[in-house]
Amino acid sequence: MAETYTERGIERPTDGETGWLNDRRVRWLGIAIAGVFSLGVAFFLLLILTQFVDYQLLVTILPQFIDALLLVLQIILISGVLSLTFGVMVGLGRVSQTGFTQRIATLYVEFFRGTPLLFQLFVVYLGVPAFWPPGQFPLQNWSFAAAIIGLTLNHTAYIGEAVKGGINSVSGGQSEAARSLGMSYIDSMRYVVLPQAWRNALAAIGNDLVILVKDTSLLTVLAIPELISVFRNVNSATFDAWTPIVVVSVAYLVITVPLGKLVRTMEERSMWGTER
Question: Signal peptide location in the record (predicted)?
Fold first, then answer.
């Protein structure tokens, strides 16, 4: 039988104090580590911005990166809307009571989550034109369309899984109660289950949209003049690495930081109706 602190003649430690590693020391240790890290990052950024960035070159190349950023935003907007639309359909298919529909949706998700996005882009970009005789493929700007299709197919699978998780997190009793009130299956999903599922899946969907932004960097292999393609061209022409690196970093943060803030705001607003 284990001895108590009193039986051992040892003073019982108060809450938060268990020897040297107590709450107060852990808190100050965390502050110290964060402070050292912040100083290191600040020094590194200051060094890069003052010693390695060519501001004359930056002004020269900025229009190229603005064009690339606008192209990336266009791709993100189209792929994001399509992925959300089809992702809801796939999520509904994953929880469908029809076995055939559920199996097809599952196969779709398993394939596009189980194979690399880069491979999927090549399948679309190179595989689809192979159905036509050489030189007779009808679409001239196929690389842009292939990028939209590839990103949409991939992220539809991930958003579909997020929607499925959101639906499964809603108590089955609510759907049964809706059906007992005379609602059809479609109406119960539309008015009862899906609004709650959306709230539960919003964080995962938001994270996937941020990943979609970063996945556009892979489109350089399709010869699309996005941010990474412009970075590579500038670097090969000027042998300057850090100037385009800084521009690309800022460009991605211009997209991802507001997007993350928007998702957090939507999460907070969606929780207002559940608070008491």
Answer: none
In the structure, what pLDDT confidence band is assigned to residue 276 with cuts at 50, 70 and 90? very low
Helices assigned H by DSSP within the chain: 5-8, 23-47, 55-94, 99-114, 117-122, 142-168, 172-180, 185-188, 194-215, 227-238, 242-271
The widest CA-to-CA distance across the chain, in whole angstroms, is: 90
Pairwise CA distance, residues 188 & 182, whole Å: 9
Contact between residue 152 and residue 82 where contact means Cβ atoms under 8 Å apart: yes
Q: Report how far residue 153's alpha carbon sits from residue 120's, in angstroms, rounded to the nearest whole number.
A: 9
- CA distance to 111, 130, 137, 217, 260, per residue, from 127 (Å): 16, 5, 12, 21, 35
- Distance (Å, whole) CA 212 – CA 66: 19
Task: Read off φ and ψ for residue 128, nearest 5 degrees.
Answer: -65, -45
- SS3 category, 190: helix
Look-up of token digits 């399709």: 222
Are the C-beta atoms of 243 and 251 separated by less than 8 Å?
no
Distance CA 271, CA 266 (A): 9
CA 100 – CA 96 distance, rounded (Å) = 9
Q: Model's pTM, two decimal places?
A: 0.83
Query: Hey, is 141 helix, strand or coil?
Result: coil
Give the pLDDT confidence of 117-143 residue by residue, as tens digits: 999 999 999 999 999 998 888 888 899
Residue 180 and residue 1: Cα distance in Å, rounded?
Answer: 56
**Cβ atoms of 145 and 197 closer than 8 Å:** no
